[in-house]
C-alpha cells in the first residue's frame, strides 16, 4: 500500500474502521431524518440530543462532566441545559458543595419511548427479523460509545 494512504500510525485510511465511521455518521443522519414529529415528540437540536444521550448514560452527571463526555464547550452545554430544562427534559439538583446533578425527567423518558417505538418500526421494515445480527451490531456500537464517552479519552 502506498505511504500516502496511511496516516502517521499506519492505519489504513481506506480500511474497515474508516468505512465503519463513515457508515455510522450516515446511518445516524438517515435515522434522524425519519424521526417522527408531532405533539408527542419533543424536538431537540443536535447539541440537545448529544447531551440527553450522556444524561441517559450517566444519570446525575454534572454539567462539566457532560461537556467533557460530549466534547462540547461548557458554555454550549449550559445553554442547551437551560433549553432542555425549559422543555421539561432535564432537571438539575444541587449536590454537596456547589455541584449540580443533571437527571432526565419522566417527560424525557416518555419522549424516548416514542422515538424508540418509531425507530424500531422503521428498522424492522428494513432489517426484518435478523435480530441476532442486530444484537451483535448493538453490542459493538455500545462498546464504541462507552469508550468514546469515557473519562480517560483525550
Key terms:
6 helices, mainly alpha, 154 residues, 60% helix, two-stranded antiparallel sheet
What layout of secondary structure does this protein have?
Blueprint: H1 16-33, H2 46-57, H3 63-70, H4 74-86, E1 90-94, E2 100-104, H5 106-127, H6 131-149
Antiparallel strand pairs: 1-2
Helix pairs in contact: 2-3, 3-4
Describe the protein.
The chain has 154 residues and is mainly alpha-helical. It contains 6 helices and 2 strands. The protein has a two-stranded antiparallel sheet with strand order 1-2. α3 packs across α4. The longest helix has 22 residues, at 106-127. It is globular and about 50 Å long.
Give a brief outline of the structure.
This protein has 154 residues and is mainly alpha-helical. Helices cover 60% and strands 6% of the residues.
Structural class: mainly alpha
Distance between the termini: 30 Å
Compute the number of helices.
Answer: 6
Largest sheet: 2 strands, antiparallel
Shape: globular
Strand content: 5-15%
Number of strands: 2
Spatial order of the strands forming the largest sheet: 1-2
Write the element-wise H/E pattern from the N-terminal end onward: HHHHEEHH
Amino acid at each position: 500500500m502506498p505511504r500516502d494512504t496511511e496516516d502517521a500510525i499506519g492505519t489504513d485510511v481506506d480500511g474497515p474502521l474508516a468505512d465503519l465511521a463513515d457508515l455510522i455518521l450516515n446511518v445516524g443522519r438517515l435515522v434522524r431524518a425519519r424521526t417522527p414529529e408531532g405533539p408527542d415528540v419533543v424536538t431537540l437540536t443536535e447539541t440537545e440530543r448529544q447531551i440527553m444521550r450522556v444524561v441517559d448514560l450517566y444519570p446525575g452527571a454534572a454539567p462539566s462532566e457532560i461537556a467533557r463526555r460530549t466534547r462540547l464547550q461548557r458554555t454550549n452545554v449550559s445553554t442547551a441545559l437551560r433549553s432542555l430544562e425549559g422543555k421539561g427534559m432535564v432537571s438539575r439538583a444541587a449536590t454537596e458543595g456547589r455541584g449540580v446533578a443533571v437527571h432526565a425527567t419522566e417527560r424525557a423518558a416518555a419522549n424516548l419511548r416514542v422515538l424508540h417505538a418509531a425507530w424500531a418500526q422503521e428498522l424492522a421494515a428494513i432489517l426484518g427479523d435478523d435480530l441476532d445480527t442486530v444484537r451483535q451490531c448493538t453490542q459493538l456500537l455500545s462498546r464504541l460509545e462507552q469508550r468514546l464517552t469515557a473519562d480517560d479519552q483525550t
